[in-house]
């Protein structure tokens, strides 16, 4: 390739970057996030979505006095004298399968045959299970005999045992999973108000990038970051929109970015954010038609992670190095997708763990080391995923990680056995 004239003058703007701390960078992003719009979806579509309105119970639950057994509805006071020596007989006056109600009232000496889940008839204050009764037929009438005392309310679930009318059922911001589905269905919420999934445009920059189905060529690699990002967006509850990959050309990037911004709620790119000659995303965010929030963060990997705002939409220009791209997503993009759906806990959950291997690498930025947790004797242990290398260029350990071990910028490493902070990665949980 011909040699072009490139500036390595350290006073040019691409080299002058003000590094900010991760929490400050997160706060800058958060200041530009507003929770997205609301839509109604069917209950089937609601799984994993975030509820946009608080829901109160429109009625008590159970809604009627419910039999807990297949048996007979009786008056418990009729059984006071019942014993192994003294059998009490009841005349069956009705039969109540589930879904039916009786229009008769149970009075002393009568009973109704009733099934589990059916509404207990008026007058009855107990249900006795079939197995403890004897039955007989006399003059065309059915009778049951009972030799034991039955407590009032036995086997009857009272109205409102689980939920009383007006009770808070689900708060806005709740993620709808199996238990929430049960609640919504029980209370007749068939159209569920949820936050719209943010549409997240993804594109990769890099002249070296090949499509996944292209054969390898010298000096080139396949674009893996776009697919990694796609999965991460799905996991975070966003709707990924793939814009492929482009060569390292600032005009192409500008056009692509414009197109992606027009049709989506935010844009995530990967590659070209460092100080290299072809690091075009870095150049693009300095052009002036956007507000750059930061282009250097005191973290590794991902120190070159860049964020900007264009027409109220966020652009995350993540590093091309796979490890850095991954960490940049987890610390900045995932929380944004969660915040747009009003998640009360948008950031990665923080735990304390015991470091399971010595960590010797020293650096002056906070390091987010991909790691794996294990519970032993009730304690959480975290081990770096990579046996030797934990470079930001390393791709292979992403799949082996369920946490980021936070290594503060200190002069020495951390020996095994010390307590460390870890950030839990919600891997595999599709929201
Ligand atoms: N002189 C300096 N060089 C570098 C610095 C620095 O401060 N001064 N920072 C280093 C750090 S730290 C990182 S991280 C990288 C960041 O690089 P970029 O974000 O500009 O990314 P690229 O240069 O485009 O690519 C880096 C690396 O990643 C591969 N890549 C790119 N896109 C993809 C993709 N879609 N899928 C898989 N792999 C991808 C690319 O081929 C490169 O190998 O800069 C350091 N350099
Ligand atoms: O941005 Mo790099 O990933 O700091 O190592
Ligand atoms: Mg670069």
Automatic annotation (TrEMBL):
<dbReference type="InterPro" id="IPR036425">
    <property type="entry name" value="MoaB/Mog-like_dom_sf"/>
</dbReference>
<keyword id="KW-0460">Magnesium</keyword>
<comment type="function">
    <text>Catalyzes the insertion of molybdate into adenylated molybdopterin with the concomitant release of AMP.</text>
</comment>
<dbReference type="InterPro" id="IPR005111">
    <property type="entry name" value="MoeA_C_domain_IV"/>
</dbReference>
<dbReference type="InterPro" id="IPR036688">
    <property type="entry name" value="MoeA_C_domain_IV_sf"/>
</dbReference>
<feature type="domain" description="MoaB/Mog">
    <location>
        <begin position="201"/>
        <end position="339"/>
    </location>
</feature>
<dbReference type="InterPro" id="IPR036135">
    <property type="entry name" value="MoeA_linker/N_sf"/>
</dbReference>
<dbReference type="InterPro" id="IPR005110">
    <property type="entry name" value="MoeA_linker/N"/>
</dbReference>
<keyword id="KW-0479">Metal-binding</keyword>
<dbReference type="InterPro" id="IPR038987">
    <property type="entry name" value="MoeA-like"/>
</dbReference>
<comment type="similarity">
    <text>Belongs to the MoeA family.</text>
</comment>
<comment type="pathway">
    <text>Cofactor biosynthesis; molybdopterin biosynthesis.</text>
</comment>
<dbReference type="Pfam" id="PF03454">
    <property type="entry name" value="MoeA_C"/>
</dbReference>
<keyword id="KW-0808">Transferase</keyword>
<keyword id="KW-0500">Molybdenum</keyword>
<protein>
    <recommendedName>
        <fullName>Molybdopterin molybdenumtransferase</fullName>
        <ecNumber>2.10.1.1</ecNumber>
    </recommendedName>
</protein>
<dbReference type="Pfam" id="PF00994">
    <property type="entry name" value="MoCF_biosynth"/>
</dbReference>
<dbReference type="InterPro" id="IPR001453">
    <property type="entry name" value="MoaB/Mog_dom"/>
</dbReference>
<dbReference type="Pfam" id="PF03453">
    <property type="entry name" value="MoeA_N"/>
</dbReference>
<keyword id="KW-0501">Molybdenum cofactor biosynthesis</keyword>
């Amino acid at each position: 390739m011909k040699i072009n004239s490139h500036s390595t003058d350290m006073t040019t703007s691409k080299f002058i970057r003000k590094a900010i701390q991760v929490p400050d960078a997160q706060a800058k992003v958060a200041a530009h996030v507003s929770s997205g719009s609301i839509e109604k979806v069917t209950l089937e579509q609601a799984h994993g979505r975030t509820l946009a309105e608080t829901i109160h119970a429109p009625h008590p639950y159970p809604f009627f006095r419910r039999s807990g057994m297949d048996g007979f509805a009786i008056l418990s006071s009729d059984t006071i004298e019942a014993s192994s020596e003294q059998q009490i007989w009841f005349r069956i006056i009705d039969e109540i399968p589930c879904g039916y109600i009786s229009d008769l009232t149970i009075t002393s000496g009568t009973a109704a045959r009733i099934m589990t889940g059916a509404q207990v008839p008026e007058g009855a204050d107990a249900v006795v299970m079939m197995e403890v009764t004897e039955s007989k037929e006399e003059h065309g009438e059915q009778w049951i005999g009972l030799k034991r005392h039955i407590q009032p309310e036995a086997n009857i679930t009272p109205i409102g045992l689980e939920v009383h009318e007006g009770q808070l059922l689900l708060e806005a911001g709740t993620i709808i999973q199996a238990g929430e589905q049960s609640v919504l269905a029980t209370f007749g919420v068939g159209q569920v108000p949820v936050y719209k999934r943010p549409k997240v445009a993804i594109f990769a920059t890099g002249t070296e990038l090949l499509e996944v189905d292209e054969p390898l060529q010298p000096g080139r690699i396949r674009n893996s970051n776009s697919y990694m990002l796609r999965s991460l967006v799905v996991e975070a509850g966003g709707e990924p929109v793939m814009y492929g990959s482009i060569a390292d050309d600032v005009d192409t990037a500008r056009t692509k970015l414009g197109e992606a911004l027009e049709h989506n709620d935010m844009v995530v790119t990967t590659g070209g954010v460092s100080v290299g000659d072809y690091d075009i995303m870095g150049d693009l965010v300095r052009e002036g038609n956007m507000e750059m929030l930061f282009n250097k963060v005191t973290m590794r990997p991902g120190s070159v992670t860049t964020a900007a705002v264009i027409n109220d939409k966020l652009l995350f220009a993540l590093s091309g190095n796979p490890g850095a791209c991954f960490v940049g997503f987890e610390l900045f993009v995932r929380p944004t997708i969660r915040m747009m759906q009003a998640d009360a806990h948008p950031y990665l959950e923080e735990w304390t763990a015991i470091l399971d291997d010595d960590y010797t690498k020293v650096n002056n930025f906070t390091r987010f080391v991909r790691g794996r947790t294990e519970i032993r004797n009730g304690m959480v242990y975290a081990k770096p995923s990579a046996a030797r290398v934990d470079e930001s260029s390393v791709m292979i350990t992403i799949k082996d990680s369920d946490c980021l071990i936070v290594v503060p910028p200190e002069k020495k490493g951390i020996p095994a056995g010390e307590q460390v902070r870890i950030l839990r990665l919600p891997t595999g949980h599709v929201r």
